[in-house]
Amino acid sequence: MSTDPKKARNQKTAIAPMLSVRKGASALEFYKAAFGADELFRIDAESGAVVARLSVGGAEFWVADESPEHSNFSPESLGGGSVRMVMTVKDPDTAFERAVAAGATVVWPVTDQYGWRLGRIVDPLRTSLGNRQALVGGAVNSV
């Protein structure tokens, strides 16, 4: 993991989601345990707030504590969210089971749908409205 801002800026053009959350450090630990996320970059503020760049199998995303003073609000502050994350993996059953073992709640289990193995979970930091849902899936192997 790096905290060097020069390394964070020295990368190819990309678009990556940035999740505004409450309890950012807890969110990071969940994503590491549930999805095997690697922490690529992290800044910890004296207040306890965190901003981090994570990678799951090379797919990058950011997690940051909400900062209302910068108009960055978590789903809890907004009373709901407008984004769901989709993770496509070779073995959705194993990925799904790992996330549930790390504390995710099953919305619906992995089943064959539309030529894919799909399941939906909600992370343990969600609100009662079920925000930050992830759809875990992978193509069904044809014989």
What does this structure look like?
The chain is α/β, with parallel strands linked by helices. The protein has 4 helices and 8 strands. The chain has one domain (5-139): 2,3-Dihydroxybiphenyl 1,2-Dioxygenase, domain 1, CATH 3.10.180. The protein has a 4-stranded mixed beta sheet, covered by helices on one side. The protein has a 4-stranded mixed beta sheet with strand order 5-8-7-6, covered by helices on one side. Helix 2 packs across helix 4. The N and C termini lie far apart (41 Å). The model is unreliable at 127-132 (pLDDT under 50).
Derived structural class: alpha/beta
Give the neighbour order of strands across the main sheet: 1-4-3-2
* Integer average pLDDT: 82
| Architecture (CATH level 2) name | Roll
What characterizes the major β-sheet?
4 strands, mixed
What does the oligomeric state look like here? single chain
CATH topology: 2,3-Dihydroxybiphenyl 1,2-Dioxygenase, domain 1
Number of helices: 4
Question: How many strand segments?
Answer: 8
What pattern of helices and strands is seen along the backbone? HEHEEEHEHEEE
Amount of helix: 10-25%
CATH H-level homologous superfamily name: 2,3-Dihydroxybiphenyl 1,2-Dioxygenase, domain 1
Regarding CATH, which class? Alpha Beta
Report how far apart the termini are: 41 Å
Percent range for β-strand residues: 35-45%
Cα-based radius of gyration, to the nearest Å: 16 Å
